[in-house]
Amino acid sequence: MKILKQGLSTFDLKVIGITLMVIDHIHQMFVPMGAPGWLDWFGRPVATIFFFVSVVGFSHTHNKFQYMLRLYLGMVFMAVMTTALQDWVSYDQVVLMNNIFRDLFIGTMFMYAIDEVRKGFKTQHLMPVVTGVLVFLLPFICSVVMGMYMGTINPNLMVVRAMLALLPGILIAENSVMVLLIPLLYLFKDKKWIQAGLIALVAIGYFALGSTQWMMIFALLPIMLYNGQKGRSLKSFFYIFYPAHIAVLYLLAAVIYHH
Which segment of the chain is annotated as a signal peptide (predicted)? Predict the structure, then answer.
């Protein structure tokens, strides 16, 4: 087959991820109207594909700070947009927790931390190592701070919303601690078979827990076909398409449900 011979570019992986993601979100939005549960299965490999793509992107970008900033702004915008949508449109049957940008931004923090620690050991300077450790711990610290505040008596709703929008807490990430797969993939970015083994181990863990997330193992099919080529650029498209399709599907489902 042509695909087996030529392989898949980064662009191809993104297209596959986006296609599966849309099917998954159709299931999410239309569950109250009887959308079949098996549609959700299509979404299980999506995060793994995007995690892999983010490792490739972060490894090759010329400006890591700009790469991280785009994801952070996307995270904030997505949090504000989903909150506003749920305030404006009554559709309580679906809770919008979608924010893959948070997962990917936290992933870049972990990758940046690894780079800093490596730099510190290479130059034998302590400061980069300390910086790297602190950056790596920050998503966990944010989660603890948020948990402590939300556990107080009568937490202020606006403060909670601000924290949810601005803080990269790993425990409020869409895929939670599964985001730790990103730094693991980054550590072995030049060893695809080890990356495949790590993905398989995580999938086995989910299978043991009885979670359908074990189907993430099917992400290995396109990932192992990755040919190292960038292909066409899809950067700006994804930043626009992701929030747009969530909003459109949510509004469409709300209108249909109430009529």
Answer: none
Nearest Cα neighbor of 97 from 118, 113, 81 is: 81
C-alpha to C-alpha distance for 44 and 216, rounded to whole angstroms: 5
CA distances from 31 to 36, 197, 253 (A): 7, 34, 9
List alpha helices for 89-156, DSSP H.
100-123, 126-150
Nearest partner of 49 among 205, 249, 248, 238, judged by Cα: 238
Give the span between the Cα atoms of 178 and 100, in whole angstroms.
12
Give the model confidence (pLDDT) of 147-179 as tens digits. Answer: 999 988 889 999 999 999 999 999 999 999 999
- How far is the C-alpha of 133 from the C-alpha of 232, rounded, in Å? 35
Please write the tens of the pLDDT for every residue from 34-47.
999 999 999 999 99
**111, exposed or middle or buried, with CB in 10 Å at 0-12, 13-18, 19+?**
buried
**N- to C-terminal Cα separation, the chain:** 47
- How big is the CA angle at 65 (ends 148 and 161), to the nearest 5 degrees? 30
Q: Is residue 152 helix, strand or coil?
A: coil
Tell me what percent of the chain is helix, strand and coil, each rounded to the nearest 5.
80, 0, 20
Banded model confidence at residue 1, pLDDT cuts 50, 70, 90: low
Q: What is the pTM of this model?
A: 0.95
